[in-house]
């Protein structure tokens, strides 16, 4: 019998293996680069105001959340590359998702934003050395994290939210 998938974590919960290879790093960077197009494809014809699970966000809120999150990620990488173990600011994702812009802005706005942010982010990622990926930041909730962990986290985050939208599409028969 197949285990029942938790709709909150369609790709599983995030885990991190600290034994990173250069090939894994390149794959994660490529995934960050291809993500905006994958999300755009997943959203094609989407029922924007349907939730992906009971009590979950709408497809529209997911797209705006990802834009919020990945803008923060881009800034966090820049801070870690230019400061000595900066303390980053967390934010209340659920509260942000309830703001009016997350409920009414066309998804095209955040999809375009993701295209632009990911273009710049991937340029930085490709230019980073192995030692750059060991640079750290202090996350007030998660503790000290290095940029390899952050890269893995946001590669997972990208797959995680594409799966939310894809599962909604399959469940709704779009």
Description:
- The chain has 174 residues and is mainly alpha-helical.
- The chain has a single domain (22-172), classed as dinb family like domain (Four Helix Bundle (Hemerythrin (Met), subunit A)), CATH 1.20.120.450.
- Helices cover 60% and strands 5% of the residues.
- The chain is built from 6 helices and 2 strands; from the N terminus they run αααααββα.
- Strands 1-2 form a two-stranded antiparallel sheet.
- Helix 2 (59-82) packs antiparallel against helix 6 (147-172).
The first-to-last residue Cα distance is 28 Å
Count structural domains.
Answer: 1
The percent range for strand residues is under 5%
User: Structural class of the secondary structure composition?
Assistant: mainly alpha
Name the CATH class. Mainly Alpha
Mean pLDDT: 89
Poorly predicted residue ranges? none
> Please, what is the oligomeric state?
single chain
The counted number of beta strands is 2
Give the overall silhouette: globular
Say what the CATH topology is.
Four Helix Bundle (Hemerythrin (Met), subunit A)
Strands of the largest sheet, in order across it? 1-2
Using the CA coordinates, give the radius of gyration.
16 Å
CATH architecture: Up-down Bundle
Count up the helices. 6
């Amino acid at each position: 019998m197949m285990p029942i998938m938790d709709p909150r974590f369609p790709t599983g919960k995030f885990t991190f293996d600290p034994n990173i290879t250069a090939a894994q790093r390149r794959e994660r960077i490529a995934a960050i680069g291809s993500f905006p197009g994958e999300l755009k494809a997943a959203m094609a014809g989407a029922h924007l105001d349907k939730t992906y699970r009971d009590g979950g966000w709408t497809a529209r809120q997911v797209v705006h959340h990802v834009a919020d999150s990945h803008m923060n990620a881009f800034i966090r990488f820049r801070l870690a590359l230019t400061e000595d173990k900066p303390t980053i600011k967390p934010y209340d994702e659920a509260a942000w998702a309830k703001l009016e812009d997350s409920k009414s802005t066309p998804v095209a706005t955040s999809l375009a934003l993701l295209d632009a942010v990911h273009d710049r982010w991937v340029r930085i990622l490709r230019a980073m050395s192995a030692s750059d990926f060991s640079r750290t930041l202090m996350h007030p909730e998660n503790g000290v994290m290095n940029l390899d962990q952050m890269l893995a986290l946001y590669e997972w985050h990208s797959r995680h939210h594409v799966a939310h939208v894809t599962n909604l599409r399959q469940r709704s028969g779009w």
